[in-house]
Amino acid sequence: MTRGRSPARIVRGTARRTRRLARRAPSVLPALWRRATGQGGGGRATAAFLRRRMVVLPALAVVALALCAAAYSDVHGRSERLRDRCVPALVGLAQARTSLQLAQQQAELRLLKGPQVELVELGETYRSRLTEASQSLHRVAASGALSKGQEQELRVVSGLVVAYDDKIAWAERNRTSDVLRTAGIEYADDMLGKPTAGRHPQPTTVLDRIAELEWQLRRESGELAAWSPLTLAAAAAAALVTGLFAFVAVGTSVFLRDRLRLVSLQLSAACVPVLLTPVLLAAGGAEEHAAQQHVRAEVVGLTGIPVGVTAPREIEGAAADAADAMRAAHPDGWSLTAGVAVPAGILGALACGVTLYLYGRPYPAARLPRRKDADADV
User: Which of 58, 166, 194, 354 is the most buried (most CB within 10 A)?
Assistant: First the structure.
């Protein structure tokens, strides 16, 4: 029976391998540079070098551009979902929750707390608040931010709002009876529930169901505003491949200067869009990510708005601030920039290959020697 390696031995072995790699690094870098500049060889080496670089440089450029486009596309897609779906849904839920609470306060004021309540009707304020709540719920359903299960839950909430209105209307019809009127208002209040913070895994009342939907969408907004593994992996790979492209391009330029005695402005110009595109997309992605964080903070603050006559305006103000923050990041402008920069980078990559092909045309390709037995047959 063999004994496993202890953690201390694993750590010491890893440290030894790291030290060996560190000692080899000073010798590896000059070797890589010599390989990048194609040092050594004669005329045939020149032809072979140019033909290899004619393929390697465009391939590296295309891979780098594809990775950059994938990283930016993920960030931009999150911006669009946050702006066009998640934020409108959260704003709609906050407005529905606030309007329902204001409607309940108005019903209690008119049917329970006012003078001569047996002679007072609900009035237009209650009905306008309930209409606002229903319209907000419809906007949430039309936002496209909800999953199938969330859409089903929203339909349940809409049905409960209708039932809640029926109980309030029943209390109004029986307003001449203190017992029936009070019972109807209290039953409707129980259906509506009391607003509580946090998650409600098994909600029963209207406000608890709305609060649970808000919690789920706030969690989704946090995920949208965070750096995703896809973005980080694609950005890291893009930086690595772009650096390798720049290293090989510089080495190729040095080869052309030393071997062919020319300074290739064409190659340098072709490399510019390839190297500029990652910088532009990185700037756009970083700006959109900062806007996502700002928008996330605004929608999280919706739960802290106290219920009152000014609450709807405060919710609209928070929604406007979130929209302004996202608009200030110019996501549509950066998307247009990416749509122009990536094709321009691909054209630059093709131009690198064409330039090296033209430089290599005067140099014949190496030919394989004929076999002696084939010569004898002839």
Answer: 58
* Nearest to 139, CA basis, from 328, 327, 332, 315: 315
φ, ψ of residue 320 to 5 degrees: the values are -65, -40
Which 3-state string (H, E, C) describes 279-300? Answer: HHHHHHHHHHHHHHHHHHHHHH
Q: Are 160 and 191 in contact (CB under 8 A)?
A: yes
Q: Which residue from 229, 212, 219 is spatially nearest to 296, judged by alpha carbons?
A: 219
Position 168, amino acid: I
The helices-and-strands tally (H runs, E runs) of the chain is: 12, 0
Whether the per-residue pLDDT at 73 is higher than 90: the answer is: yes
- In contact, 61 and 185? CB cutoff 8 Å: no
Asked if pLDDT for residue 365 goes beyond 90, the answer is no
Q: Which amino acid is at 224?
A: L
213 and 155 in contact (C-beta within 8 Å)? no
Q: What is the DSSP letter of 6?
A: P
Whether residue 23 is predicted with pLDDT greater than 70 in this model: the reply is no
Scan for tokens 């590296």, then name that residue. 60
Buried residues in 13-37 as b, exposed as e (16+ CB within 10 A): eeeeeeeeeeeeeeeeeeeeeeebb
